[in-house]
Design a protein that fits this description.
By secondary structure, this protein is an alpha+beta fold. Helix content is 48%, strand content 22%.
């Protein structure tokens, strides 16, 4: 057979060499004749491809630019940038409900100073940390130009990128001013990897138009195409010989054509030689080799089957067992004598075997198709075990089936693990969505359920939210212990669980706060009726270790039936109603109606005006003089905040302090008023007027502000003494430790401490001794009532007695008449303050008052 093999090789080598020579001569002829046309073909192909790529990139960027410009006018985004809302949830909801271009990966939001506020990831990967500095620089540029700007992020150094990141930044305008910037991050695919069908492979890069001249000068072969009106361009370069590429393409196609032409004669010649010379000898050789291979394969398969861990069965077409390996005896528990000639379905399967699995096996056997199933078998009739079973049909050389082979492996351990994992996962999912103490659904469960019911058209059946907050629950924990508090919470949970059914759910959202979501009947009347019913049940006394616990509850209700707010705003509306219930005395039910909605809108308007007023510097210090009770000299002024509103005139603190506190802006107002007042003091000194003392009203939050001490260190007060007036209500027995520490630091820096509105009933003598104030200011209600009330007179004498015991001064506020002034002087007050001497004056009128006051200004020297 060596001669046959040698002839075979020589024959095909000659055929191949002849064919190759014919192709080589044909290729040389094509190359010589085609060369003059290649250069022009190259140029046309490059320009055409470049224009298509530029149009594709422009088609990606254009909708992203339009969407960015559209989203900057979104009210939810504007409210977030202006600070009206603390989160960008509304803007996130908006973009999640908008069909976004596929290439947008995220949105970045910057405030009016170019500082990042938040970012929202659209794709699966965030690039915010990598490009935040570039985006911030771009936002500052947009805030300067007030125009939408597109910029490419050149983050790929030393290699040609497959994708490039484009930043589209647009200003967020409010009343003609840029209040922030929205940056859209777009990932543009460049497809720099050559595709099989590309005639010419080009390297593409997006560049900024100002960089075009430098980039083009660095590469003579570069081709530059503008991308629409974006201010960007596509730079096309090539690291390969394009001329050679086109030539190779043309030559290869020519060779294919020639090959097709030569294939027929060479093929006929090869076929005839194969039939007459090679085939007779090859058939004999193949038959002998096949026989040897089959004998070897059968021997190897038999050895493997005996040593295999899987059970192997061979059956005839009637599915009776004719052969098995040792592993089958071990797994099934049957001996060889019990197995042979049996039907596997009768021997192994039983009452709990899945009928669907058995039917699937029967169908595969009938159709002679392979099948794999997981099936429950029985060992020795009673013991269950699981196997993974694969069955294939056996065919002879003629393709006729003669039996079946089944391979199975024991998977009982895996099935047990899966069952245990399923049980554990179910328990963990339940714990993740329920409160551990009460067993009620938790906030996470509520958010998911509420969001699901908020989707879809507003014409869906009404939803209602009931917000519940237990009244004075903290007293239960403080006086009777947390176990008693837990008992109360569990009782309330049982009440809520009993009154909710169907799709309605009761939720504990934390502490002593609960929510009920009414879905089956979300009308306002149904919610109010349910809330009153719960209120009566919660008010029932609870016996705890022989003691009676009583708690109340405040309820806030909002229903979409009223159409005052959108569904997603129902929780906030219920919160507002709950706040009113607490404000009106607790232990009652308040529904969010038209009147409450008007108040909320009013508060929002006031909040917006306060923010605008702070930006415009509309809050000014007014000054009320303080005089010596004996000499009637002006010994200082108290600084009072006033809002000089452009439309409503001068507004007193009662019209804005409460809303400012809800906005957490009291510290900002305190700081603004203090800075302006100290500047006015310096102005007076320049005019030759030196105030002996200036007093500021300071909140507890302002005292905890580290910037306060820093501002005091940086300020030179000159000869003017500075005093901080703090409300008596701050000095409770459980006052925070930081307050004592802060007061000590203030005294070390030369400031004095006064307790304002003393006598209102908040401070105990113990806390008063710990604070050690320099002055007590008697509440003006006691001073004004003193001439006509002996009780008020006795209270004033008592306060003066306390001050004398502590060796501190006393200031009487609310001195409206001469009678007030004389009486307070006789009782022993050291300082007087009130309308009898002067109302609170703006700085322009203060200077004139100090110059004309009858008692004069006390000399600080």
């Amino acid at each position: 057979m060596r001669n046959i093999g040698s002839i075979n090789r020589v024959f095909w080598v000659l055929i191949g060499c002849s064919f190759a020579l014919a192709l080589a001569t044909s290729a040389a002829a094509v190359w010589i004749t085609s060369k003059p046309f290649l250069l022009e073909t190259q140029r046309q192909a490059i320009v055409s491809q470049a224009q298509r790529e530029a149009a594709r990139v422009d088609a990606i960027l254009d909708p992203s630019e339009s969407l960015t410009g559209f989203l900057t006018s979104e009210p939810a985004l504007l409210s977030y940038v202006l600070g009206y809302v603390m989160t960008d949830d509304g803007f996130v909801d908006r973009i999640e409900n908008t069909v976004l271009p596929a290439d947008i990966s995220e949105f970045l939001i910057f405030d009016f100073s170019g500082d990042p506020m938040s970012f929202h990831i659209v794709g699966t990967q965030s690039q915010s940390l990598d490009m935040m500095q570039v985006a911030r620089s771009l936002s500052l540029e947009v805030l300067t130009t007030n125009q939408m700007t597109t910029k490419v992020v050149q983050s790929h150094v030393g290699r040609i990128p497959d994708r490039q990141t484009i930043l589209i930044a647009a200003p967020i305008f409010h009343q003609g001013f840029a209040e922030g910037v929205l940056v859209t991050v777009v990932d543009v695919p460049l497809y720099n990897a050559a595709k099989p069908d590309d005639v010419i492979a080009l390297n593409k890069r997006i560049v900024q138009s100002p960089d075009v001249a430098h980039l083009k000068a660095s590469d003579d072969n570069a081709i530059l195409v503008p991308i629409g009106t974006t201010g960007l361009s596509l730079l096309f370069t090539s690291e390969s010989n394009l001329f050679k590429t086109i030539g190779q393409e043309l030559v290869s196609k020519a060779i294919l054509a020639v090959s097709a032409a030569l294939l027929l004669p060479f093929g006929v010649f090869g076929w005839l030689g194969k039939q007459t010379i090679l085939r007779p000898h090859a058939e004999v050789e193949r038959s002998r080799n096949k026989l040897r291979e089959q004998q070897k394969e059968l021997s190897e398969l038999a050895a493997i089957a005996r040593k295999a861990e899987e059970a192997i069965l061979i059956t005839d077409l009637d599915t009776r067992i004719i052969w098995h390996n040792p592993a089958f005896e071990r797994i099934s528990g049957y001996s060889a004598s019990q197995i042979k000639g049996q039907l596997p379905s009768e021997l192994l399967q039983g009452k709990n075997t899945d009928p669907k699995a058995r039917a699937k096996i029967r169908a595969a056997l009938i159709s002679h198709t392979p099948v794999t199933v997981e099936v429950l078998n029985y060992r020795n009739v009673t013991e269950e075990y699981w196997v993974r079973l694969s069955i294939s049909t056996l065919f002879d050389d003629l393709g006729k089936p003669y039996g079946y082979m089944a391979i199975s492996s024991d998977i009982s351990d895996r099935k047990r693990d899966e069952a245990n994992l399923l049980a554990t996962t179910s328990a963990m999912e339940w714990q993740a969505l329920h409160d551990e103490l009460t067993g009620l659904p938790n906030r996470r469960c509520f958010n998911a359920t509420f969001e699901e019911h908020c989707r879809g058209p507003e014409q869906k059946p009404a939803l209602a939210i009931i917000r519940i907050d237990l009244d004075h629950f903290k007293n239960v924990n403080d006086t009777m212990g947390h176990e008693a508090g837990d008992l109360v919470l569990c009782k309330v949970a049982r009440i809520l669980r009993d009154v909710t059914s169907g799709q309605n759910i009761s939720v504990r959202i934390g502490g002593d706060e609960f929510i009920i979501l009414l879905v089956d009947d979300g009308s306002l009347q149904a919610a109010c009726d349910l809330a009153h019913s719960i209120l009566q049940k919660v008010a029932q006394p609870i016996d705890y270790e022989g003691k009676i616990i009583r708690v109340g509850a405040s309820f806030g209700i909002a229903s979409s039936e009223c159409q005052l707010v959108e569904r997603r705003e129902l929780v906030r509306a219920a919160d507002a109603a709950l706040y009113l219930a607490k404000e009106r005395g607790r232990n009652q039910v308040i529904a969010y109606g038209a009147e409450e909605h008007r108040k909320v809108i009013g508060v929002r308007d006031t909040a917006e005006q306060i923010r605008r007023g702070i930006e415009r510097g509309e809050f000014e210090p007014f000054y009320q003089p303080q005089v010596d009770a004996q000499s009637r000299e002006v010994i200082g002024v108290e600084v009072l905040a006033r809002w000089v509103h452009p439309d409503r005139g001068v507004l007193l603190p009662g019209s804005f302090l409460r809303v400012a506190e809800q906005l957490s802006m009291l510290s900002t107002l305190d700081k603004m008023i203090m800075e302006k007042a100290l500047k006015d003091v310096s102005t007076l000194e320049e005019k030759g007027v030196c105030l002996p003392k200036i007093s500021f009203n300071v909140t507890a939050n302002r005292l905890s502000d580290p910037d306060l001490l820093l501002a005091i260190d940086q300020r030179d007060f000159g000869e003017t003494a500075v005093s901080f007036e703090i409300l008596e209500s701050v000095f409770l027995d459980d006052q925070p430790e930081f307050l004592d520490f802060t007061l000590d630091l203030l005294r070390e820096k030369g400031l004095s401490i006064e307790i304002d509105d003393f006598g209102s009933g908040h401070a105990s003598m113990i806390s008063l001794m710990r604070v050690r104030p320099d002055v007590l200011k008697i509440d003006q209600r006691l001073v004004m009532g003193a001439p006509n009330s002996r009780v008020c007179q006795n209270m004033v004498r008592s306060i003066i007695g306390i001050a004398e015991s502590l060796e501190i001064d006393v200031t009487a506020e609310g001195v409206e008449t001469r009678q007030h002034a004389d009486m307070m002087q006789r009782m022993g007050c050291t300082t007087l303050q009130g309308f009898h001497f002067s109302e609170a004056l703006p700085f322009g009128e203060l200077h004139a008052f100090l110059k004309t006051h009858e008692g004069g200004l006390r000399n600080t020297g």
